[in-house]
């Protein structure tokens, strides 16, 4: 771990003491989001120290012109960038004419941040002595309403401690923001109009190229010792891209003055452009009608409902408890499942690195979490997102020379178009197609929703099967089909031949698609006819697919009894990570790319990812052999790595190792394992953390329609519990050092197994 | 071929008729250079049609900030760009107030360009009717003095054909130029001072970052019907980065008015910065003293001297004759060998694509040409260029994780630093190190200069041997040393394992270095001690090198009886180029990169490059097998490809194929085979053209100190002849359909073979 300043607490993320070097890290960790918008935990008041100002609106992006050194045919012209959005939280504050800025204060004491995950709010408090020797106590509370997701609220409280002062509040909305992550240092926003009315300020601006129209708004009230002063702004400043109000209040020593600010966004994704100002005013009116306290208590209730279903409790290990709740909290802040146009960006609302909102992370890591802790429509919406982008995936494959409806989903996307531009990833990391098919299988297996495949999924599967059929080539030398020139999940290998994972999932995709075609033919005749006609798919073509699937080559080492990650893996210098000089780690920061590529080191589960997806295709002995062969070469320099290894270590009864991996995945950002938390959080891997408890320690599996558990518990824990929604029944699994209890709501006539034995459900207990 | 508008001629490149679509192509083909500066064949007068204005100064470059999509550790921070330099050829011309611009003329007739390669000048003539109906005859002669290489001369002649007119000449010098090839669209030049004195104009400007100071100058004289009017400028315009003079002359119908313009550059590479204006004035004074005609006749004499030695004659095939002279002419325009700081840029003075001046092309393709047609010091200077950059090569290797004096020469460089930034090339195309060692061997073998290795070469060899020793790794699986993750000469493969060519030349480098260490130890004791101490090289280390060389792995196919280009080559779909749909060609313009990579198609000789370098390590039968296996997969999409294949086809007595390859290499630019001549010429491959005659058809080899020839002649030719300087004796080889004659100057007691028989040299004949 690289930092440990976060105070362990069961329900909150807490920072104590003001340390400027932690500001950007904490801005990430204390981020707020409500599925529709979010922002880093930037200070509301001015801060002249090092900071990374970031506000984000779900689904609003900018197609930045691709930057490459050397253009390759097939590169996308644009890279969909996550957009830093106008800032509505800003409040400049003058105390007796002195600007409040923690960087310039004579002293800052009792600085404390708390992100209360249980109730969904963020609080900051401190005492500061300003350059003019005024001493003040500050408390700031901020939250983004889950219920009214266009609105956020700030209550900024100041109490002068050593004298009576004049406080000038200057709340503002600013659209003059620039992306941290931009290819050409261009501005992405253009201001259309600025309005000001009573205590409110509005800026209408649109994104260049994509023309998302957004009205960013604020409304302000000033209170003294709890009483609304009903002030009107003493001054209004409108600049090119900023509107700022000003309120001055005389505040006696030990009196408390409060600026209450509501703010947020209304966008053309959800309103007609001509109604945006009205929609913004409506949002303000609603917030004012409800009032800060009611909005807050609703917020607490809404978060309580989320936790009712998705909480995981851990007793006896507060850091582990804090870690899992931190992960679950941010997942829920990032994606609510309400809007099928949205997806789960790798940094959520906490940063803008990577760009794009959708990676294979969604299918491989996130779907299990949303599937088990939300209504199953949420997972279905995530699948439908890919169905809605099928045509673009077919176009994408055509750009790369494929035909006949073969679909290659993009590595990174915002709207279905590829927006990544490294040939070794964009063109070669094609296993992503496999995860998208696997998610359809996984969803169907888990939910028993038989309608998705005939309605939507089968068309996606056919496009994917066609891709694999065309992408594999026949090696006369091997007398097998081979898949040349790929990058597997282990991105520390590029352009390799016969990556076992890719070959395996390619074969599986074809087999599964053929099976589903037969199933739909039998059970959903009219869907079958519609799909076969639309796809112009013949039995002859299916036979060609099968030839590839039935004769796929898998690299294997007789000597080691393992499948090889790719052809030639054994030619490497097989020095384990344990024997690698620590000064060389992390290798992605210390080594040139060629050195990484020719090393045996594995960024994240690759062959083992296949053993995770297809666990029941292999024996426990086989898993053990492969784990023992590959894990020692694994550097876990991807956030997606520890979770899969934690699950497999648990399967292999290596609880100490499983626990170490668990801590690493659950506290990846809290403890900043990868030295990059200041850039934002690793949102998608947080779902992997959830899996490492539910599927790893809890041993949850679904086989042949039966839900089973094989619970284990780390020695460090007294107990843990989690809930899953399985086929619209809720199960609570309570595991302690002395045994496991399972509770189920509603009808108990459902096949369940515990440790391989069929299970008799106890009465529903408080769920 | 993609164009055929160049008129076949033995000694000149000729274009007849004005075709705006050909302008940019002709600007490349008719380029002038004198080793120190050069420029594209841009019109002197204004031209509002499509044009690519380009002037270049040898050695003057700009380190453009590297542009990549995704930064990798080890990438160089800067890319040394060939710099588009200030323009001194420009002359705006007004005829009765109407600007002369071929794009706007009512008609253009008898347009003709001629690049007279024999005499080293470029002439353009045309008749035009201007928008104001004035009809004029124009003749322009331009050359860049070989003798006074800071000066060029233009004689611009106008004759009004249908009326008396007023001609206003507005010659200028312009430093406001921009690079065509720039990463960030920045300007590379900053103007320091502009001066004007009598008929001269000067601009002093410097390159940003590198601070090369350059004074670009001009001096003008106006003549009417041959008489110098001794005009002073009627007006002088000084703009921010331009100085322009103006002369007005009344010209009667059928009178001839001439603007004679001398211009050029003096730079801080050759003069103290404070003396630059004086140096420029001196250059002008000297040119004026000599006068245009004397400069021109000197030019003709100087080119005659070059041709005396380097000409290749071909009888019976004017296109072949024009092709080879075009190649030899541009090689001599690009690099004179006078200045060891310079090298042979891939586009010479004809364009700015690629950047950098030095590639492995110099060692692999260019050295044989300069070695055989120039004083041997020229080739020695080219070797010394790398010796002078040895420290940078060691630093470069250190950046990639190597140590102990291992040297990796850059893929592309201007000053010894790497300036390429694609990981698959920069970090992996390491075979370039082998060519640099091979050139030392080749030079020593050819010249018998025993001093270079003890003085300089051995240190380079040691750095290179150390690199290979460290770069190879031991495969316990193969029980051999392997070289993983490389790009071979065939850049249509990236990150492959055990590229045969790379492995072979790595082993050879070590063996050769060890042998040279022993040789220096025996013959040059003090050098030996100095070098071993400087390099801190022990016998123990040498033994470690030998282990690698003696146990190197070479991929081989028993089935085909050939070495494999790399591991796994046989897994590809081995469809020959002949069976590839023509609509898919060239694949580098039609296919995405992954598709190219997994195909069997070869950009340029790879395994066969090894058979070219090390021909005598293999039997003719082995060469035949490898040629027959690899050539059918070769798409020759590198300009460096046809020449090697031409040589090998000739060895294999496949004269028809050899001739086809010869035409392709010699007329690559004239006929624009690769559809890119408008970007500039392929200078380095021109040396390959020379090799394809001398080593291919002529069969020249040096073995054990003996010069041998095995001449063949294409059916299309009556005869051909070439000369080589071998160990300071000049041989002329005259091959006709009826036999071969060899002439030698000076002492004839030298071992020579013709067709395997020892040869009795005839008396020197006119050489």
From TrEMBL, chains A, B:
Record-annotated Glycoside hydrolase family 65 C-terminal domain positions: 700-760
The molecular function terms in GO held by this entry are: carbohydrate binding; glycosyltransferase activity; hydrolase activity, hydrolyzing O-glycosyl compounds
All copies of domain Glycoside hydrolase family 65 N-terminal, residue ranges? 14-268
Statement: the UniProt record of this protein carries the keyword DNA repair: no
* Classification via SUPFAM superfamilies: Galactose mutarotase-like, Six-hairpin glycosidases
Record flagged with keyword Glycoprotein: no
Question: Biological process GO terms, please?
Answer: carbohydrate metabolic process
Q: Catalytic residues per the record?
A: 491 (proton donor)
Where substrate binds, per the record, is at 360-361, 603-604
Q: Which UniProt keywords apply?
A: Hydrolase
Q: Which residue range or ranges hold the Glycoside hydrolase family 65 central catalytic domain?
A: 325-691
Task: Identify the stretch annotated as signal peptide in this record.
Answer: none
Q: Name one Pfam family in it.
A: Glyco_hydro_65C
Q: What is this protein called?
A: Family 65 glycosyl hydrolase
Q: Which organism is it from?
A: Flavobacterium sediminis
């Amino acid at each position: 771990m690289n930092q440990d300043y976060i105070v362990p607490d069961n329900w909150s993320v807490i920072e104590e003491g003001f340390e400027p070097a932690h500001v950007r890290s904490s801005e990430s960790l204390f981020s707020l989001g409500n599925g529709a918008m979010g922002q880093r935990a930037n200070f509301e008041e001015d801060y002249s120290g090092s900071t990374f100002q970031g506000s984000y609106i779900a689904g609003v992006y900018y197609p930045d012109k691709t930057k490459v050194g050397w253009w390759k045919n097939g590169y996308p012209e644009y890279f969909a960038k996550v957009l830093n959005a106008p800032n509505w939280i800003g409040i400049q504050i003058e105390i007796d004419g002195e600007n409040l800025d923690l960087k310039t204060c004579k002293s800052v004491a009792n600085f404390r941040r708390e992100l209360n995950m249980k109730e969904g709010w963020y609080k900051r408090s401190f005492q500061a002595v300003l350059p003019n020797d005024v001493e003040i106590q500050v408390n700031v509370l901020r939250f983004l309403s889950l219920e009214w997701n266009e609105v956020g609220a700030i209550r900024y409280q100041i109490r002068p401690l050593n004298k009576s002062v004049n406080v000038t509040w200057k709340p503002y909305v600013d659209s003059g923001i620039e992306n941290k992550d931009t290819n050409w240092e261009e501005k992405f926003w253009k201001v259309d109009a600025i309005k000001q009315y009573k205590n409110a300020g509005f800026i209408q601006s649109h994104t260049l190229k994509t023309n998302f129209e957004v009205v960013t708004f604020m409304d302000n009230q000033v209170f003294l010792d709890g009483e609304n002063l009903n002030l009107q702004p003493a001054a209004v400043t409108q600049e090119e891209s900023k509107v700022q109000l000003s309120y001055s209040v005389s505040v006696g020593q030990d009196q408390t003055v409060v600026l209450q600010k509501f703010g947020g966004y209304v966008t053309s994704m959800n309103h007609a452009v001509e109604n945006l100002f009205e929609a913004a005013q409506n949002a303000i009116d609603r917030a004012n009608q409800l009032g800060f306290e009611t909005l807050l208590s609703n917020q607490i209730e809404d978060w309580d409902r989320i936790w009712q279903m998705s909480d995981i409790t851990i007793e006896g290990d507060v850091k582990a408890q804090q870690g899992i709740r931190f992960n679950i909290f941010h997942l829920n802040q990032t994606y609510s499942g309400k809007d099928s146009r949205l997806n789960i960006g790798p940094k959520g609302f906490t940063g803008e690195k990577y760009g794009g909102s959708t990676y294979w992370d969604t299918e491989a890591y996130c779907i299990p979490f949303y599937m088990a802790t939300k209504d199953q429509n949420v997972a279905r919406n995530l699948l439908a997102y890919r169905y809605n982008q099928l045509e673009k995936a077919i176009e994408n494959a055509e750009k790369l020379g494929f035909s006949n409806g073969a679909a290659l989903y993009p590595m990174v996307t915002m709207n279905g178009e590829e927006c990544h531009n490294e040939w070794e990833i964009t063109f070669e990391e094609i296993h992503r197609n496999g995860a998208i098919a696997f998610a359809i299988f996984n969803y169907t297996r888990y939910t028993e929703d038989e309608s998705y495949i005939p309605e939507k999924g089968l068309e996606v599967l056919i496009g994917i099967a066609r891709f694999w059929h065309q992408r594999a080539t026949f090696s006369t030398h091997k007398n097998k089909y081979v898949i040349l020139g790929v990058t597997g999940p282990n991105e520390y290998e590029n352009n390799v031949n016969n990556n076992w994972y890719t070959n395996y999932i390619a074969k599986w995709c074809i087999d599964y698609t053929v099976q589903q075609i037969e199933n739909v033919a039998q059970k959903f005749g009219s869907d079958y006819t519609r799909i076969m006609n639309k796809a112009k798919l013949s039995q002859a073509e299916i036979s060609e697919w099968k030839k590839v699937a039935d004769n796929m080559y898998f690299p294997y080492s007789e000597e080691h009894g393992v499948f090889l990650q790719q052809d030639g893996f054994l030619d490497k210098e097989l020095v384990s990570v344990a024997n690698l000089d620590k000064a060389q780690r992390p290798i992605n920061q210390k080594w040139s790319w060629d050195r990484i590529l020719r090393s045996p080191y594995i960024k994240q589960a690759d062959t083992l990812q296949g053993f995770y997806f297809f666990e029941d295709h292999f024996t426990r002995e086989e898993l053990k052999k492969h784990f023992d062969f590959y894990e020692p070469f694994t550097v876990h320099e991807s956030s997606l790595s520890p979770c899969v290894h934690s699950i497999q270590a648990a399967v292999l009864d290596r609880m100490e190792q499983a626990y170490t991996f668990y801590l690493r995945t659950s506290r990846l950002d809290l403890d900043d394992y990868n030295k990059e938390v200041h850039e934002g959080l690793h949102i998608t891997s947080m779902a992997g953390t959830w899996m490492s408890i539910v599927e790893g320690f809890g041993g949850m599996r679904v086989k042949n329609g039966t839900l089973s558990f094989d619970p284990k518990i780390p020695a460090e824990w007294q107990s843990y519990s989690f809930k899953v929604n399985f086929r619209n029944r809720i199960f609570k699994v309570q595991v302690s050092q002395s045994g496991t209890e399972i509770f189920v709501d509603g009808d108990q006539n459902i096949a369940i197994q515990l440790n391989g034995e069929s299970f008799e459900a106890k009465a529903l207990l408080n769920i």
